[in-house]
Each structure stands twice: as structure tokens, then as C-alpha cells.
Write a structure and sequence with these properties.
heterodimer; A: alpha/beta; Quinone Oxidoreductase, Chain A, domain 1; 28% helix; 20% strand; B: alpha+beta; Alpha-D-Glucose-1,6-Bisphosphate, Chain A, domain 4; globular
């Protein structure tokens, strides 16, 4: 089959690789019909994610048709196992459904989906092994991703959601990651009716966080970025916007909230923050010589900007360590911080209903459509032309 | 090595005992009953599915089993293991024969986790390889990160008991690169 493989910094290629096969009893094989490049794929493209190996197939946002089913999928009634020919969208993280984290809805904390040998990496790095993720380094399991013609889906009786007839691929594809991720980011804000929520980063996750915050009762959303196209999309959703090249963000936020600061602040940027603030320049220099991996300018700013007693929500991806963490502001203002990989499986069904009711049409975020064969070009423009590109959908 | 079931587990999971033996301990919580977990472990032939270097484990009788482990340069290392304590649903302890090339022993205990939260599995393994060049080779192999081996074995035990399979990312990932199989299908 053809698949997008990683070979090094800014080096991804569409190559012919072996087809996947059923390995475990609860596996599915999917023929991919649509897949997308995620902002977090750019962290891999830029070589910020450790434990990648040349030849790894990328891609964790995908959907398709079931073409093979393992012998022992579990479930009955409404949860009856999927069959050949079913059309499904697949969550980016892999969850077994049987461990305590899965049973309590903490799917991204699944104890079992990271293979025993790969799990060592994160146990050493983070104290505990993290769950498996498709196409996202060997720290998260070394699973082949879905930017390919076919993909093996482990625990196929837990994650994949059957797509009802009448919905297009593009309407449901983002249930795989960015819609649930934006939704959970807003949920982590503990929004009370009328609250003001500030969102740093108007990439795809930020866009879904803005819309989710309104749907969850926010009175005002303030969106922060510097790309005109992305700010325009935020404005179209009803947000007030700040271009951080034009205004001092913290002062502007304080004024826009009557001196209080936002009730909740969302860091939808993560470890590759741009900009030329002094702390960011120091972080970037350290990252270049591998003294620290994460540029955490936005994380610092959300903590400094948030009102006393407010919520800080961090859907942006971090992987390493940081310094200059404003722990005093965090403690003295009594902030609540929530973060984590998304519990995608927990949100897919309810968000599918929102799409069916017409309350949110996820296709707004798509700016480019390319065949899988041109995936490398997709990465390049997503990286280099963020003022034009918001989301690239690939078709095998 | 501690044998009292109520003795506190050492927090360090890799300790060199004064005698020179290597001593590994680790715990994992599994969402299954003590009886189920005990039953799987007590049939020693099952354990080969969880272990990296073990070729096969033959159950000889109620107390004895024969272990075959991949050795250096393709040579297998074999020994008989004897169950020395057996409390159904609670605890199993074993010890290699006196004439084994690698003296080894261990125990596993199944303890109730807080109500509704499954079973805590505590395992302790102790190894002692002979001296000399061969001994060092064997030790290097057998104790190759004994900590890591124990950690992976208990993870696979949890995966298999909770999900019915052992997680693997085996399979094609890219052009011209294939990793050794980690699949152990049920």
C-alpha cells in the first residue's frame, strides 16, 4: 500500500509499504477514505517529538471502511461489533475499554494499549506509561498511522464510531481528534453562563475550542493569533480577536474584561510557541541545543492573564520540561489547571449528535484538499503557509 | 528474601542484596479477581506468553516445572523449578533446583485492592548467577535489565487478563524496516 512515512526533520515521503494485517483478536483493518494532517503532526515534522524511527507511518486523524475484522471483537446490542463494510471514524488514541482508566472515562490514560516494550519510554520520562496513539512515535506505542491506504486498528470494538448514512466524510472526520479536543478544552474551563474565555492559538483545535465554549455557555470568547485567515475564522464564530503582533495581549485582555482577566484561558498552542518575547527567545535557544524541549511562552501567559480563581485549560501538546513556570501566580491566584490528551471515545457520540442537529459544521476548518500522494506537500504548506492553510484533508 | 505475606514491599524495585544476588520487586493492579489471576499464574506453562526470553515452560507435576531460556550464542539454559509455597488465590513461591546454572527464586502475591478496584499483584524475583566467564555471560543475559523484564512481564499479564490479548504495534511501518515480532496472540 501507499503511506506517508517519516524520515527526519522536514523529511516525510509517500512510499510503498507492506499492507497491515490482523494481529490480535480484537483488531480491525480499515480502508482509509479520508485522513488529515494535525497541528501535532507538525511537532513530529519539526522533530520535537522524541522516539520517532525512520519509516514510521504518520497520521492519527482518519476514517474509512472496515475491510477485515478480528475473530474476537466484544460487544452486543447497541455495541455489537463492527462488520465488514461499516463506515467508521477512529479516535486518535487507542483504548482497551477494560482497564480502570477506560472504565471511568479516562480513555487517554488507558493502561493497556501501549505495548509492554514501548511503555518503558514514557514510564521513565513521565513516571507512568502513557496510552497508545496512532502514528505518533514509539513513546505512544509505535503504532502505524492512518495517512495510508490501510490501517490496523487495535481494540476495534472500543474506539471506532459507526457513521450514520447521510453524513459526508468531511463532516465527521474531525471527530477523530480536533473537535473532541476543542470540546474537552472548553469543558476543562468549567464554563459558567456568561463567562469570558480567552483562547491562545486559532489553529484547528483553537477554532473548535472557540465554538465549543459558546455551545457550553460562554458569553464572550477572545481569540489570540497573528494569522489573518485564522483570526477571520474566529471572528466568524463570534469571537473577539487579538493579533499579538499588534497589541499587548495581557493588557488588552485585562481591559476587555473590565480589569478582571478572563474567567478561563485556553492554551491551544503547546510546545512550539512563536513570537519574540524574551522568555520565548531563551526557550528557543535552549531547544535548539536540546537543553529543554518545550517553548512554553503561552503556558506562562495564560497563567499570568487568568483572573483570580479562574481555570487554565491546556489542550496544546507538551512533551518535555520547562523552567520559569510562574508557580507563584498559579498558587496565589488560586487557579485550576486541567490538561491531558483528549478522552476522545467519551465525546464522539455526543458531538456526532451536534453535527447531525446542525449545531456545528466541522467542515469550516478545511482549507486544502490533496490526494495522499501529495501528502509531503501538504506538510510543507501546513508548516510554511499558516496564513493560508488551516487544515489539510488527504484522500488515499 | 522476605516471605512473610504481610511484610512491607521494598519501595526500591531493584536492590542488590548483601550476598550479591539481584533482587527485583514490582506491583501492578489488575481488574480481575484474585482467584482468576492465581489460576493463570499457577499453570506455569501460561507464563511463557508473558516473557521475552523464555522458549518454553513444561509442567512436570503439581510442584515441578522445566524452564528453557534462550542463552548466549543460541545455547539454551534449562532448569527445573519447584513450587515451595502455594496458597490458592493468595500466594505462590518457587525456587530453582539446587544444581541450576542460575540460582533463582521468587514469589507472587495476589492482594485485594480497595473494593471494586481489582487485585494488587506483587512479584519478587531473585537471581544469582555462577562466577567465571560463562557465569558472567549468563548473568549478562539473564539479568539483562531484570527490572525491565519484570516490568514488561507484569504489563503483559495485566493486558492479557483485562483485555484478552497482549498489545502490540507489530506490523509494517515503513519501507524496508521490520522489527522482531512482539505478538503473542491468544
Amino acid at each position: 500500500m501507499r503511506a506517508l512515512t517519516w524520515h527526519g526533520k522536514h523529511d516525510v515521503r509517500v512510499e510503498t509499504v507492506d499492507d497491515p494485517k490482523i494481529v490480535n483478536p480484537r483488531d480491525l483493518i480499515l480502508k482509509v477514505t479520508a485522513t488529515a494532517i494535525c497541528g501535532s503532526d507538525l511537532h513530529i515534522y519539526d522533530s520535537f517529538i522524541p522516539s520517532m524511527m525512520p519509516g514510521d507511518v504518520l497520521g492519527h486523524e482518519f476514517m474509512g471502511e472496515v475491510v477485515e475484522v478480528g475473530p474476537s471483537l466484544r460487544g452486543e446490542g447497541d455495541n455489537a461489533p463492527l462488520k465488514k463494510g461499516d463506515r467508521v471514524v477512529v479516535p486518535f488514541n487507542i483504548a482497551c475499554g477494560n482497564c480502570r482508566p477506560c472504565k471511568t472515562g479516562q480513555f487517554s490514560g488507558c493502561d493497556n494499549s501501549n505495548p509492554a516494550d514501548k511503555a518503558d519510554i514514557s514510564e521513565v520520562a513521565y513516571g507512568h506509561a502513557v496510552a497508545g496513539i496512532f502514528g505518533y512515535s514509539h513513546m505512544t506505542g509505535g503504532y502505524a498511522g492512518g495517512q495510508a491506504e490501510y490501517v490496523r486498528v487495535p481494540y476495534g470494538d472500543v474506539g471506532p464510531l459507526k457513521v450514520p448514512d447521510g453524513l459526508t466524510d468531511e463532516q465527521v472526520l474531525f471527530l477523530s481528534d480536533i473537535f473532541p479536543t476543542g470540546w474537552m478544552a472548553a469543558e476543562n474551563c468549567g464554563i459558567q453562563p456568561g463567562d469570558t474565555v480567552a483562547v491562545w492559538g486559532c489553529g484547528p483545535v483553537g477554532q473548535f475550542a472557540i465554538r465549543s465554549a459558546f455551545l457550553q455557555g460562554a458569553g464572550k470568547v477572545i481569540a489570540i493569533d497573528h494569522h489573518a485567515n485564522r483570526l477571520a475564522l474566529a471572528r466568524a464564530a463570534g469571537a473577539e480577536v487579538l493579533d499579538y503582533h499588534e497589541v499587548k495581549v495581557r493588557e488588552a485582555l485585562t481591559e476587555l474584561t473590565g480589569g478582571n482577566g478572563p474567567d478561563a484561558c485556553i492554551d491551544a498552542v503547546g510546545l512550539e510557541a512563536h513570537g519574540f518575547s524574551p522568555d520565548n527567545v531563551v526557550d528557543a535557544a535552549k531547544a535548539a541545543v536540546r537543553l529543554a524541549t518545550d517553548r512554553t511562552h503561552v503556558l506562562r501567559e495564560v497563567i499570568m492573564a487568568c483572573r483570580k480563581g479562574g481555570h487554565v485549560s491546556v489542550p496544546g501538546v507538551y512533551g518535555g520540561i520547562t523552567d520559569k513556570f510562574p508557580v507563584g501566580a498559579f498558587m496565589e491566584k488560586g487557579l485550576t489547571m486541567k490538561t491531558g490528551q483528549t478522552h476522545t471515545q467519551k465525546y464522539m457520540r455526543q458531538l456526532l449528535e451536534l453535527i447531525q442537529e446542525g449545531r456545528l459544521d466541522p467542515t469550516f476548518v478545511i482549507s486544502h484538499r490533496l490526494p495522499l500522494e501529495e501528502a509531503a506537500e501538504g506538510y510543507r504548506i501546513f508548516k510554511d503557509k499558516q496564513d493560508e492553510v488551516t487544515k489539510v484533508v488527504l484522500r488515499p | 528474601m522476605p516471605t512473610d505475606t504481610d511484610a512491607p514491599i521494598t519501595p526500591a524495585n531493584l536492590v542488590r542484596q548483601p550476598g550479591g544476588d539481584t533482587f527485583v520487586s514490582r506491583a501492578v493492579t489488575i481488574d480481575r479477581s484474585r482467584d482468576e489471576l492465581y489460576a493463570f499464574w499457577r499453570n506455569f506453562s501460561n507464563l511463557a506468553r508473558l516473557m521475552d526470553n523464555v522458549e518454553r515452560i513444561e509442567v512436570l507435576d503439581e510442584r515441578r516445572s522445566h524452564w528453557v531460556v534462550k542463552g548466549p550464542a543460541g545455547a539454551d539454559i534449562e532448569w527445573d523449578s519447584l513450587v515451595v509455597e502455594d496458597e490458592p488465590g493468595r500466594r505462590i513461591a518457587w525456587r530453582a533446583d539446587e544444581d541450576a546454572e542460575i540460582r533463582n527464586s521468587g514469589w507472587v502475591e495476589f492482594r485485594d485492592a480497595p473494593p471494586g478496584r481489582g487485585t494488587e499483584v506483587h512479584a519478587v524475583i531473585e537471581y544469582d548467577a555462577p562466577g567465571g566467564v560463562v557465569g558472567r555471560l549468563i548473568a549478562k543475559l539473564f539479568q539483562r535489565e531484570p527490572n525491565t523484564q519484570t516490568r514488561r512481564e507484569l504489563r503483559r499479564f495485566k493486558q492479557l487478563m483485562e483485555t484478552g490479548e497482549i498489545s502490540t504495534s507489530e506490523g509494517p511501518r515503513g519501507a524496508g524496516r521490520h522489527e522482531p515480532s512482539e505478538s503473542k496472540e491468544s
